[in-house]
Each structure stands twice: as structure tokens, then as C-alpha cells.
């Protein structure tokens, strides 16, 4: 049997702790005297909100006005949503994405940060110096300069851009500003319409036909070769179906090689761009066939660029495990004047948790998407609901407030005084809309082609900038600065790599 423990009093425990503290102090004193103790790092910990999405929200007056119109009946005779599609084609309505300042290889870290901040401030003031004008005339767009820094770095790393869009309404994710940015940076483009399982096939075909004309007219040709390719996919199916995965990978790698002009043995980097919640990270997971990037339903989950080597040996002929690199970029919300803000709630670009009212997005969907009202009313199961709550008015709901009230009764969402909590019901309803459980599809408007022709006639010319790949730029900088001192070259290069 083990020896019996001796009683240990509280006083003895205090003496034991005191002896340990004295021994530790003696060790620290010895280490300091021998200069073996490391100084604590002066670098502050990174703020977790450093890369959070930052928006200019609606004012209290606008929110109150929308709430007062909660029980105004729907107006399904108009087609206002389709008439607004042309704003995504107008350079005057789509603010150009700011470009990173030139000469970054010759700047120190502090100079680079100051130059980038100046570029962002000029971009923000160029939209409008008045915040009230931005809040009323523009959609919600990204106001965090650190997100733009991530976009610039992914652009420099990439040989071509892969822009991901939601197939249910791709034009809202492909304004002319992102295409002009690709042309300025001299990057060919692959457009991937993701989530095709949530959209109608006729709608996807119609959008592909329109985008071929739209993107081709904006990007133009170089040496008689077009600078874009359009693909469709279901990122969830890529992980489940091996044949679908192999077919998509062969087409994706072939298009990337052809557009970039980089032959098979050489390494190629593809940057993934797009708005939040379009499925960039999900598409990368589908390409890999497994989870390599964290994914959440909350928009803006990816907060920092991520680079991954794509193992292609055995999947695509001639490729190796180190010849293809994917770079995931945080979502960037584009600034578009005239685009309805409730649309960003519907498409999942704006976080539902930060949405102050869901009445206007519901009105937009019902009035502009044929058959959507019948779908959400059928989900209510009104007969069962009226049996549970006999006091309810048996009139068919004809306003966003009435529909959300019935959903609050169905899910038993009540606030104080047993009044239906329509805000919570709206959040749960739009969770189903965003993840595709409640389907909606937007077709190209009838006059969109006509608007495209008139816009392209007045499209301002773009002068491509010297915005080459980061590795090529570093090589050119080192070769061009041989006349200078070696120490200066090392200082400039290390400043960029450190950042």
C-alpha cells in the first residue's frame, strides 16, 4: 500500500508558495545579470476588428420611414427592380476600385502605409465628401481600407483574376468597376457563376449570353485574343461528384493557362475576387475536394488573404503539385450609385445581424420576382396557423408587415406583451433566402441589351497601368537598381516583404 500522506496545513502551503516565488525571482535575477533574458515584444497584438466589414448604415429617419410603410400593400404592377439593372453598367454609377500606389518596392513600411491611406482617402472623398449623400444615393460598400490592402496584395500575387458571382443575380456582383480594375491591372479574367443549383437553368443561360457581350466589350481583346472566360459550377457538387470535379478542373486549368499565356511547367497563381457570400472560399474547397478554407454563412468571414498550392498531379495531365496556386481574397463590397440597399440583404452581401429592418427587402423580392409571394405564403400553412390562433385575421397577407407577423406566429417569436417579433421573423426568413432554401431568380431585363449598347458607345478609355506580378516587379527592381548600392536594394525589398 502507498504511504499515507501527512497532513498539510494552509500555513504550510503559504510557506511553500513563498519559497517558490523567491526561487523564481532568483532565477530571473541570474538570467538578467547574464543577459540571457529576452525583452518582451513591443509589437502590439493585432486588433481582431482590423479587417471587419465597415459600412455606412441607414439613418434612423430612413429606418423609421420604412417601418411606417410596413402594412402598405404590395405593388406588383411595376418592374422597378429590372429597370435598375443598367446602373451596374454605368461607369458614372460604379465607383472605380482604387489602385495601389506605384513605386512600392522603393518605399519603407511607414511610407507605404501613408501612401495607401492617401489613395483610400482620395477614393472615398471622390465618391462624395458628404456622408448623407453616400447613405442615401449609394448602396452599402466597403469603408475599411485594410480590405482594399488585401485586394491589392492578391492582385500583385496573381497572374489572372477569378471573379466569383452568385448565379441568381450575377450582374449585381459584376459591376463595370471590377472589370475596369482588371483591365487597368492588366489581368485576364475568369468569371465563375457559382450556386447554379439555386437558380433556374434558363436564367443562367440568359446571363451567360449577356455576360459574354458585356465582359467582352469592356475588356476588349489583346492580339486578337479575348481576355476572359465564363464558367458555371456548383461548388458543393464538386466535392461530391468526382467526374464533375475532374471536368471542371480540366476546363479551369486550361482556361487559366490559355488566358495567362503561361505554359504548363511554370507556376501560375489565380486570385479569387468577389463580394462577400458569393462562395469564393466554398469554390476553393470544391476545387480541392475537401475543406482547406474556413467557411461560414456570415458575410466577411475571410479577413486575410490565403494562399494554397493545388495538387494537380493525377487530375490534370502535365500539371504537378506545385504548379498551380490559388489565392483567396476577402470579399469586397463594390460602391454602386442607384443600387437598392435592400438588394444586398437579399444577396447576402450585407450581414443579417446588422440589418435594422427586413420589411423593405421583403417588399423588393415580392414586387420584383414573379411567384415569390405565392411561395412564401404557401410555406405559412395558413389553415394550421388559423387553427392555433383563432384571433388572427383570416385575410390573405398582402404586405410585408402582415407576412412577417404570420411567420412570427408560426415560429412563436414574440416580444414583450406577446406581440409578434417581426424583426426576428424577418432574420430567420432571410436566412432561408440567402442559403437557397427559399429560391429566387432574377432574369436579365428586356432593355438591358439596349442599355448595354448605349453605355459602350460612351465608355471612357482605360490606359492600362504598369501593374505586373509581384515577383516580376521585384526582379525588375533588383536588375534595374544595379547602379545603386547593394544595401539600398536590400532595404527596399525587405520593406515590402516584411509588410
From TrEMBL:
Top-level taxon of origin: Eukaryota
Sorted UniProt keywords: GTP-binding, Nucleotide-binding
Residue ranges occupied by any G domain in the UniProt entry: 269-333
GO molecular function, one term: GTPase activity
Keyword Plastid: no
Basic and acidic residues bias (residue ranges): 14-45
Region spans: Disordered: 1-45, 470-499
Comp. bias regions, Acidic residues: 487-499
Biased composition (Basic residues): 1-13
Physiological role: Possible regulatory or functional link with the histocompatibility cluster.
Protein name stated in the entry: Guanine nucleotide-binding protein-like 1
